[in-house]
Amino acid sequence: MKSMQQGTISRRSFLKGAALTGTGFTIIPRRLLGGPGYTPPSDELTKAVIGVGSMGLGHLNYPGRTLAVCDVDEGHLKNALSRCQSHVAGYRDFRELLERKDIDIVHIPTPPHWHALIAIAAAKAGKDIWCEKPMTRTIGEGKALAETVGKTGRIFRLNTWFRFTDTFYGFGTTVKPVRKAVEHRLLGWPLTVTVNAATGFNWKFFWSGRTDLTPQRVPAELDYDFWLGPAPVKPYHPHRVHSSFRGYWDYDGGGLGDMGMHYLDPVQYILEKDDTSPVRIAADAPQQHPDACGSWRRIELTYEDGCKIILDGDNTDTAAPFISGPEGSLWPGLRSDISHLEEKLARLPDPEPRCIDFHEAVRTREKFALNEQNGHRSCTIVNLAKTAVQLNRPLRFDPVSQTFIDDAEANRLACQPLRAPWRL
Amino acid sequence: MRYRSLCIGLLITGSAAQLTAQIGTGMEQQVRTLVSRWPAEDGTRMQAQADSLIGLGPEAIAILCRILPGTGEGGDPAPQYALHGVVHTVSLPGREKERRLVTDALLTCLASDCSVPVKAFILRQLRLCATERVIRGVRPFLTHPLLCDPASQVLATLGGPSAMDALIAALNRSGADCTVTLIRALGGFHDPDIFKPLAPFASSSDTDVREAALDALAATGYPPAYDLLKKIPVTASRSELTDAVFRLLTFAERAVDQGYSPLAETICRDILAAGSDDASPQCAALSLLVRIGGPSVQSDLLAAADSPHRDLQAAALNHAERLAGSAVTARWIEKMGSADPSLQVRIITMLGRRGDRTALPLLIQSVQSADAGVRLAAATAGARLAGDDFLPELLHLFKHADSSQAAYLKTLILSAFSPEAFSELASALPLLPPPSQVAVIQALGVRRLYEETAAVYAGTASDVPEVRLAAMRALSRLADTGYSERIISLLRYNESPDEIAALQEALVMSSGGSSNGILAAVASMSEDERINFLPVLARLGDEACLAAVTRDARSGNLPLRRAAVRALAAWPSPAALPVLSAIAYGNSGTEEKEAAVDGFLRIASADPGEPETLFSRLAAIAPCCTTEARKKILLKTFAEVHSSAALDLVGSYLEDPVVAAEAAVAAARIVSTDAFPVTDTVTAVMLRALYRCRDPYVHEQIAAFLEAHAPSRLAYRPLFNGEDLSGWKRHEHLPGHGLAGRWFVEEGVIVGMQDPPGQGGFLVTEEAFRDFDLRMEVKIDWPFDSGVFLRVGPDGKSHQVTLDYREGGEIGGIYLPWVRGFVHHNSDAASLFARAEWNSLRIVCLGEPALIRVWLNGQLITDFQHTPESTAGVPAEGGIALQVHPGGEGFENSRAMFWNITIREIR
Questions:
Q1: Helix or strand holding residue B30 (H, E)
Q2: From CA A110, how far away is CA A242, in angstroms rounded?
Q3: What chain B residue is nearest to A38 in terms of C-alpha separation?
Q4: How many CA atoms lie within 13 A of B341 on its CB side?
Q5: A409 → chain B, closest CA residue
Q6: Which residue from B114, B118, B435, B734 has the fewest beta carbons nearer than 10 Å?
Q7: Per-domain residue ranges of chain A
Q8: Cβ of A409 and B129 within 8 Å?
Q9: How does residue A33 score in pLDDT terms, banded at 50, 70 and 90?
Q10: Which fold has domain B146-228?
């Protein structure tokens, strides 16, 4: 069945009345959709939080009436329940939680190796999903998750938001004026983005794993086998779990895994690359251990059209603009070599409005601004970077089939089997 | 003969063994040397180092495997890095020969007797570089309880018939431990040939086995599997039901791949027809039908659009959006006729995204709908499809919009319209209701459409306040100097605070930075009329403005004067500092003086310039800064001036109880530069700061500073020599009782007792002290009443730190004898006082009015700040006294004992 092409038409042709297709969203607030015959659903949506360690506790305060929490660590579970009202139920097994009919939305602040599995189960169980970043640990999981969410008609969001709100870290302004400048080609094309401390971003290399672990006794309150879930069985050590799991490839991907989506999802949005992926990836890093994540010096991801993202972990390019094209550049604080930039931006049409209220999206069934489609693509940038660092050689990627070209090992890293009995 | 050949045989064997051993040692040494270089510094070196190892041959790899630890088992990780690097290297295209060498070597290791964790490590590495060659060597581990997971993953990754056969064979001989693992591994194969071996497991009593088998069978898409998958037990739980339905869908998807589309379609339609609590399976079924294609997809979508499930409805429309062709559009337009408003909204939205302009007539029509949601959806879709061409419809909606609808339409036009369309909207302004006028005017301002300034300006004459205000605000984005005069006259007589603020902003923006026109206009105005313009002059901030506002600050007209001072306080440059200072010190009213001081502080801190300039400015205004907030601002700013003069001034604030702690922090910051000149005066100030400091981190910093520069200041000296009472005397002039008591030294300890019984007194130092840090050890018999008295004057008036050790007595209270008694009670510390043991006591007495802090056994028990009222009558310096209190029941034989009395003076 031939489907409509995703629009890459610029705003200018939109103004001339040409068709703009693609994943545009309506933002008509529900209250304007009233009128006779329209029955608004019950007031507050309900939620459950799976994974109530430190991030998960924060999710308790997110919108939505909490009905249930779940964790494989008895201590975490008790702690979370003590902060909740008495009607909130505690579960050790998320599959029991998903059976409940009264839960609308499932929050998933577990470590990343669980995200795809739980989210897919939640989608099949008819729940909408608020998933922590990174969306998935591997590209293969991301494909499966995006596909499942799409075909089951679920509303999905990730817990990063800089593409549509908030000051973009050390860049100092929101992303909107940058996107606008790009949309209207004020900087020219193609563009290069540099993400480093000088442009306002910290790559958090402290999320490194240890290679000197020795087996430790599993604490009584932790169900370690369940915590591992689909990940391979390796001897227990406290550094693998809870507050330091980010240092291990089996569960996450170091600072890239932690901050990658926060930094790179807005970059993908700015570069208008929500429906594609880089085609060439190169990394410079000390060799990575098969189990423990380490630091890296530099990663470059290049798109087919020449747009480039530079992750400058070493902060060597201290004078680099955040974004640069043949006709202009932008530095933090929206400093630019383009004269009267603010003036020029003001006179140009705004980017298309999007739905940025998740509960609104759940009620109207409109895709949220950051969803399983564009989120998978930006998570793919992160996972491509991880793979390049692990293999330490240049890679080529096909954005359509979402596989590596001429590199079987890279594809084996992108698609990893799960430990039985778990499956996506 | 035989014996000889035997010997020779032994000899040969012996030397061969020796030789092997030699080669063995040599190789192992080489390998270890190479391994010590891992991890590699970068990718290029990784490959080069890997090649060195591979170049040594399979024995090298074998040795590598022998010396590497399993993950998480401790040991040297270098061999793990090395093997991992080797695996990366041989996985590259063009390295097949090395790959064979390495995988063969890994299989040899697997077959040896290395530990399970090591084998697990090797298997995981093997997964990355495996080829079909490895199947044979991996097979035995498929039934190993601990290794079947990594082993089966190797085969699952490989794929292909040989791997599949190996898994099936293993399944037949495996124990229960590995069954599920093997079945799951087979689940990735999607090959009809797994049907026969797996079918029996589909009815296993073990849930995990059964589910794994059914999943794997579903993945084959092989029609005979359908019968097994259809069987959903009546007693199925909700999740079992969900799993079963999705298994059928997976089966259907695979069936399509295998060419069995009709079967797949039937399954999808069954699921759609069955309905369910939640629509996930139905949405998935619909997706698959769309994927399969077929002539009735359109009907399926239209039917699904009628579903009571919003998500199925939405899914249907999302699919419809992606189907090309105007025929599709037409059917959905037709559907509109029977749709309720909420479905109409969805259809319209979908049509807007489809990009097919044949939908436009419907959209134009829908703009007239009775339902507001439909109207707005039509506007959105129309704007998306037709941009400027949809202006008439948007205009129509603007003509009937309320304020929230108008706000929505505004965001629409801001992302959709060209300047030409805005122009038409601007000329239509007079025809629009007020909320829409507001929205359009706002949009014109946001978009900086200078071409429409006249239309916006016209809005300032509106009868409706919201419209006027919106127009005035928009003018700040649009107006140029040509509008200055008009804005001036609007501002001159205006009395509404919001409008005044908006017009001031507009005047500033339109002035182009030049104040001439405004000053000329203002010069001819009355005093009251000028008030509105002063903030504008403050924003422009040039010399002429300053002169004008300064004049007004001396005016006899009170409101004008006040406004002028406020304007000066808001000045954007230090040029206003002199006049603000004059006002602060002058004889203006309090309100003006306060405003002037705050303004001065703000400007001076915002534009610090050179540290000396900053300091001299702030030092000049310091006497006017009498409130806590202002003092804190001063101190914070002084903290950045690394000069002795700044430290001196900050030092004076150490005696101000309200901001003493902040002063201490500021002092610490001031001296924290390397080049700061450290003198006696400086260390004296820092010692005081040490005691005023409340921040533990800063306290550490100051202590370190003093230890480095003036350790002698930190020294404690003894007040008691441990032998006799030299330096101490009995106080002879206490009013009332208190000239008695017996004091003596016994075993290095000062002892005080009543003598005669019932009579007490003070033992006081001959030296007088003012500010100090006093330490001692105290033991008191129960019951007894003692105390430490500070700054004891000739008549005994002093501050007592009570050591009243009896029922109801207070430890660490502050009592002023012969003055006003208790100024501070302490009922908690008594429980910390140890009976029949030495207690450590530390008393700090600082400043006048005094700060008195007491620690008992390391814990702070008293933290009391005197006021002038509470301390009146007590001298500012005097001796330190120990007490035996007269009277008291059971006191006759009690003793108060003191020793290790030392003091650090704070001078």
A1: helix B2-35
A2: 9
A3: B342
A4: 20
A5: B128
A6: B114
A7: 42-158, 169-207+250-353+371-414
A8: yes
A9: low
A10: Leucine-rich Repeat Variant (1.25.10)
What's the mean pLDDT in B277-300?
Answer: 91
**Chain B CA closest to residue A408:** B91
Phi-psi region for residue B728, left (φ > 0), alpha (ψ -120 to 50) or beta?
A: beta
Interchain CB contact of A12 with B (< 8 Å): no
**Are A366 and A356 a contacting pair, CB within 8 Å?**
no
Q: What average pLDDT does chain B have?
A: 92
Whether the Cβ atoms of residue A231 and residue A250 lie closer than 8 Å to each other: yes
A340 touches chain B (CB under 8 A): no
- Taking only the tens place, the pLDDT of each residue in A347-372 is 999 988 889 999 999 999 999 999 99
Spelled out in words, what is the top-level CATH class assigned to the domain A42-158?
alpha beta
Say which CATH architecture domain B717-905 belongs to: Sandwich (2.60)
* Domain A169-207+250-353+371-414 in CATH 3.30.360: yes
Q: What is the pLDDT of residue B12?
A: 44
Contact criterion met (CB < 8 Å) for A125 and B280: yes
Supply B106's token pair. 């890994």
Is the CB of B280 less than 8 angstroms away from the CB of A126? yes
Q: A7 vs chain B: nearest CA distance in angstroms?
A: 10
Tens digits of residue pLDDT in B793-819: 998 999 999 999 998 899 999 999 999
**Contact between A15 and B387 using a beta-carbon 8 Å cutoff:** yes
pLDDT at B887 (0 to 100) = 83
Mean pLDDT of chain A: 90
If you write DSSP's letter for every residue of B134-182 in order, what string do you get? GHHHHGGGGG-TTTHHHHHHHHHHH-SHHHHHHHHHHHHH--HHHHHHH
What string of DSSP letters covers A331-389? EGGGEESSTTHHHHHHTSPPPPP----HHHHHHHTPPPSS-HHHHHHHHHHHHHHHHHH
Beta carbon pairs, A and B, within 8 Å: 266
Nearest to B73 among A14, A123, A214 (CB): A214
Given an 8 Å threshold on Cβ–Cβ distance, is A365 in contact with B314?
yes
Q: What is the ipTM of this complex?
A: 0.90
Contact B80 A211 (CB under 8 A): yes
Q: Which of A4, A26, A120 to substitute to test the interface with B, most B CBs within 10 Å? A: A26
Note the pLDDT tens digit of each residue in B117-137.
999 999 999 999 999 999 999
C-alpha of B164 from chain center:
50
Give the confidence band of A24 by pLDDT, cuts at 50, 70, 90: very low
